[in-house]
Amino acid sequence: MSTRSNISLLIALIIIITTAFTLNPEKRIIENIKVEEWIVPIYAVDSRGNSVTDLKNNDIELYVNDHKFAHFNFIRRRFLTENNQKPEWFKNKKEEKIVVLVFDTALSKSPSIMKSKAIADQLVSRSNNDTKFIIFKIEGFQGLSYLGGPTNNKSRIKSIIKKKIIGRDNKRSVSSGVDDSESEKSKYQHDEQVFFLLQQTKYLSDKSSQFASSFQSLYYAITNITGTKFIYLFSEGISNSSWARGDTHASKMAGYLLRSGAVLFLINPSGGRGSSLESGEEFLQVLSSLSGGKYLTGDTKSINNKIANIHNAYYELSFQSPDDMKGGMLRIDVRSKRKNVNIHTIRNLEKSKGYLGLDNFEKKLTVLNMISKNPIFKLPVEVEDAKILREETSGQETIYHISIPEHFLNHNADFFRIQMPGTGKKPIVTKSVVKLTKSVMKTGIENKDGFNNYFALVNYELGMALIKGVGKEVVRINSASLKKGILEFTIDRFKLKTMKEKKVGLLRIAIKIINLNGEEIKSDEKEITLVKENTTLRIPVKQIPHKKYNILIIVKDMVSGDETNETLEVNI
After folding, report:
1. 506: domain CATH number?
2. Can you say how many angstroms the Cα of residue 506 is from the centroid of all Cα atoms in its chain?
3. Cβ-contact 39, 317 below 8 angstroms
4. Is this model's pTM higher than 0.90 or not?
5. Quick check: 329 and 348 in contact, CB under 8 A?
6. What is the SS3 assignment for 146?
7. How far apart are the C-alpha atoms of 116 and 93, rounded to whole Å?
8. Chain centroid to CA 447: how far?
9. If you average pLDDT over residues 326-341, what whole number do you get?
């Protein structure tokens, strides 16, 4: 596949993921260049693989770029399944977890793919509403394919995995193409049999190379997503028939996995199969060593038990990098002072690049994130909506008259024209450099069937950008609280429609009580009509026989079709 094709596919992949998030124009994550705060996810197991659940701050040492850090916070958490009590320093921290499921259908055989689906199903079943999943698969000679997410809708995730991860009868070793009988062998000369072997070897080698290259796409797809990230790669690995120690596939994959800032689990459902020609166990073990991933193999039940056991020993460490921290990549080394305790965590954290540190491809991906107005993506510049004075059609173009703020004047800027595609098409992003000398900028973007036009004007000298984006105001839940059995929250930004000469809002509200295992205890749903644009609701909640539980509030605006939700943690 050509470099240009790879770039087109990567941009298409990023824009699909970008638009998959719930848009929220009010929240914006602007990078603080001087001081950045990091949350490092940590698992602790003993030499037998059993969970270690009683580690404290003084049991841990943190090294960043080979320098020992004395000041950090350390707390045991429940991974996926419990919103347990948080200490004061942790209460305002964003806790969203992003679990990336990657299914190898390019190299793995059908039985392993089916087992991978069963393991992933258990992983999803154990998750709570703070966990969002993104699903990918790697296809033979096609590379990384985005399937869905980010979403915490369990039934949606399971449906995607069930329907879109298909078993393949992938060949993992070479043969001469003839059986062992003398009559069959006699049909072919020795050089013909050698030819068959060479052709199969090349086929497997090319397929393995494409598999390894897919991890560049994976890196670009998730690197700028905020939150604590975890990758579960389900694969039999590159077989001994097409890989040998010294090949670059493992190091290439490890490089991108390390830079992603995600904790990595390498799951081989085939049971390993040792040194056989079909086995990819040695490859996965080398990849695990290079990337810091946790390698798990065995039958389905065994792997599920191992994952559950590791999750039981989950901690989070928080620290701030100092102003004088050098380098774009932070090397992380978390050590246990206690004997026979093994730490599994990330090895690198990639510091957010300034805009000028991005290459042209990364800049295009960044502006796609900008125009989505999605708070889950980190941005290297401050973003605001452009004021469009006039918009008109002229021939095959739409002409925009853009108001340029005074502080933007007399600066150079990058101007991106973005043609956003419909389903199945690739976005088109072009860049030019403009000198902003007038208070109004007049520019045109070609109109193409099936595409919508957007733009981003980036003043890299000021670290600011003006955009015409895809974000829209959606119904919002504010200030949720539970007092004396009354659930109180405010709803705003819903749309109004005229009914009997009055403007009213039509909302469907669902209240779900969920225990700490993610199981629904009670549920209630009703439709209401509101006449004010900002309304506080008070809903009685019957007594629950639990000291800790979650209340999930789901609001759907029946006029606009938009939906939002909010989770309230209750600790009595």
Report:
1. 2.60.40.10
2. 33
3. yes
4. no
5. yes
6. strand
7. 33
8. 32
9. 86
Pair (400, 484) in one structural domain:
no
Residues 172 and 304 in one domain: yes
CA–CA separation, 4 and 15 (whole Å): 17
> Whole-number mean pLDDT of the chain?
82
pLDDT-derived band at 294 (thresholds 50, 70, 90) equals very high
14 lies in some domain: no
Separation CA 258–CA 345 (nearest Å): 11
Radius of gyration (Cα) for the chain, nearest Å?
26
Q: In this structure, what CATH number is given to the domain that contains residue 428?
A: 2.60.40.2150
Q: What is the CATH number of the domain that holds 305?
A: 3.40.50.410
364 vs 187: CA distance, rounded Å: 57
Supply the pLDDT for residue 7.
Answer: 52
Alpha carbons 524 and 508: distance in angstroms, whole number: 11
Q: What is the pLDDT of residues 443-481, one digit of tens each?
A: 999 998 878 899 999 998 888 999 988 755 567 787 888
Residue where one domain finishes, among candidates 350, 369, 389: 350
Question: SS3 for 309?
Answer: helix
d(CA 79, CA 228): 11
| C-alpha span between 179 and 161 (Å, rounded) | 38
How far apart CA 384 and CA 371 sit, in angstroms, is: 10
Exposed, middle or buried, 360 (CB in 10 Å: 0-12/13-18/19+)?
exposed
End residue of a domain, out of 334, 350, 366: 350
Number of residues in the chain: 572
Shared domain check, 396 and 487: no
Do 431 and 512 lie in one domain? The reply is no
* Cα distance between residue 292 and residue 285, in whole Å: 10
Give the domain range for residue 486.
476-571
3-state helix, strand, coil in the chain (%, to 5): 25, 40, 35
Residue 365 falls inside a structural domain: no
Backbone angles phi, psi at 454, to 5 degrees: -140, 170
For helices 3-20 and 360-372, give the axis angle rounded to 10 degrees. 20
DSSP state letter for 517: T
Backbone φ, ψ for residue 20 (5° rounding):
-75, -20
Q: Identify the helix (H) or strand (E) that includes residue 458.
A: strand 451-459
Which residues are registered as beta bridge partners of 297? 268
CA distance readout (Å), 341 to 48, 127, 255, 306, 334: 10, 26, 26, 16, 11
Residues 244 and 384 grouped into a single domain = no
Q: Are residues 246 and 319 in the same domain?
A: yes
CB-CB contact of 397 with 446 (8 Å)? yes
My answer on whether 403 and 286 are in the same domain is no
Q: Quick check: is 364 in a domain?
A: no
Residue 18: closest CA among 429, 523, 460, 399: 429
pLDDT tens by residue, 60-116: 999 998 889 888 999 887 766 544 444 444 444 455 789 999 999 999 999 999 999
Q: With 60 as the cut, is the pLDDT of residue 31 above it? A: no
275 and 150, same domain (yes or no): yes
What is the count of structural domains for the chain? 3
